[in-house]
Fold:
Amino acid sequence: MLVAVAALTAGYPQAAHGQVRAKAAVTCVSAGQVLEYDCTIRLANARSGEPLSGLTVSVGADMPSMPGMHNVRAVKATEQAEKGAYKVRLELEMHGDWAVQIDLRGAVRDRVISMLRFEEADVTDVKPSSGRRGH
Ligand SMILES: [Cu+2]
Structure:
């Protein structure tokens, strides 16, 4: 997972020296409606592991296998009582592999992308070696 995140964020401008980079652990469950998922995002300082709280977090999603075909609007995540945890409901347009884009603003500015496979019953991490069978 860490390898995938590093590869996917490589295209973004490098942070200035000393700037905090974020890492995200994303877990999603079906929200009970087809293609709706409740996701919890745990944000931490990539170096120290310290939870990142007090940030403005917005979450969007796109399908790397279908460039330009989807337009899931970014939604603001709600900070939870647990430090560094944010919750968001995603409404997707189809099942398959999505790149979940997490934008952080505030004391830390960063973008973290998490590759997840959304299926009807569950959501799993997309391993770099598993290929693209989202469609
Ligand atoms: Cu698609």
